[in-house]
Design goal:
Elements lengths: L6 E5 L1 H8 L4 H13 L2 E4 L2 H8 L4 H14 L8 H10 L16 H11 L9 H9 L3 H11 L11 H13 L2 H5 L4 H19 L7 H10 L4 H11 L8 H13 L7 H8 L7 E4 L2 H10 L8 E3 L7 E5 L4 E5 L1
Parallel strand pairs: 1-2, 1-3, 3-4
Antiparallel strand pairs: 5-6
């Protein structure tokens, strides 16, 4: 049970990797107990777990899982799909009301069991997960090519040039675009938001898509193309505010510098900046993003973990021993 006024501190994957260096599981256990007393909920998301599960080095993978089981909250943050659907159902608020940030996906149920029983671990086929991720890889290059307006094939007989025209047309037909003059930079960010809306919401191209499937089942639309048309007409605000807009800004900030193979998971992590008190990272891309969005309040949430000084002391008692990270 999550207490009222509990602070939520999110660790994306690079922050977890950094934090585990030179620390033991005993340190993790002691720190978790101390942070709980302080009213702080240290959390991860399914995106962190998927990245860990794709770690090819088995020993490193199991070490990260076991350390995380003993350090982080038993409840995962909602998946990107869950966050986006909740935002839509809430009416695209400019300021969202506080709510419990708990995922109800399959991997969240497994994680809850693993935290409650830390001697357990994930049982899965790494090749299956890698194959699932491989189907998402094209988005990495595609986003960069959208940013650079390159003309290359998108899928089958279509071309990215054709897609760009379609994307440009979709953007120009939106009400908020017709009513305001936006810079070329802003329009690129809006196009990225539209692309991710198609990718996540309409095509269900994410690791956890059950909530999205149910959402469209309730509306009664199966066709991806029909979903896109429906979303552009009914869900226009998600393009310029809310979690998808934050994701698009992060992706633009990252893509305009250089190609990055990690853009998919970085974009998924970006969903959480709006919803947490602090966002811990050791990834330069998020530091660039922090500078890009200043003076927006979310910029002050980003904490570059290797630049922080952690105070600690050693506690010994019958039940626990280890270094408590303050």
């Amino acid at each position: 049970m999550i207490r009222k006024n509990t602070e939520t501190w999110y660790f994306e994957t690079s922050a977890l990797n950094y934090f585990t260096k030179d620390r033991t599981v005993e340190d993790a256990i002691a720190t978790k107990a101390h942070q709980s007393l302080k009213g702080r909920r240290w959390v991860i998301s399914s995106s962190v777990l998927w990245e860990i599960l794709m770690t090819s080095n088995r020993a490193k993978r199991e070490k990260l899982i076991y350390f995380a089981q003993n350090l982080f909250d038993r409840e995962l943050l909602p998946s990107p799909g869950e966050i986006l659907i909740e935002y839509i159902k809430s009416g695209f608020p400019s300021i969202e009301k506080p709510r419990k940030l708990i995922s109800h996906t399959e991997i969240a149920n497994i994680w809850r069991d693993l935290v409650d029983n830390p001697n357990k671990t994930f049982i899965y086929n790494i090749n299956d997960i890698q194959q699932r991720f491989n189907t998402l890889k094209p988005i990495n290059k595609l986003i960069h090519k959208i940013i650079n307006n390159e003309n290359i094939p998108l899928i089958d007989e279509n071309t990215e040039q054709g897609f760009q025209i379609t994307l440009e047309s979709a953007l120009n037909n939106l009400k908020f675009i017709k009513q305001n003059n936006y810079s070329k930079e802003n329009k690129k960010i809006f196009k990225i938001a539209i692309f991710y809306m198609m990718f996540i919401l309409c095509a269900e191209s994410v690791f956890e898509n059950t909530v999205i499937q149910q959402f469209w089942k309730e509306i009664g639309i199966k066709s991806t193309f029909e979903r896109i048309k429906y979303a552009l007409y009914h869900f226009e605000p998600i393009i310029y505010r809310g979690p998808l807009a934050a994701l698009a800004a992060m992706v633009y900030c990252q893509s305009k510098k250089q190609y990055s193979r990690g853009i998919y998971f970085d974009s998924m992590h970006a969903f959480y900046i709006t919803y947490v008190n602090y966002f811990f990272t050791n990834d330069q891309h998020f530091k660039d993003f922090e500078e890009f969005i200043k003076p927006h309040p979310n910029s002050y949430k980003v904490q570059f973990i290797s630049e922080l000084k952690f105070t600690s002391h050693t506690r010994y008692n019958v039940e626990q021993r280890g270094t408590i990270i303050l």
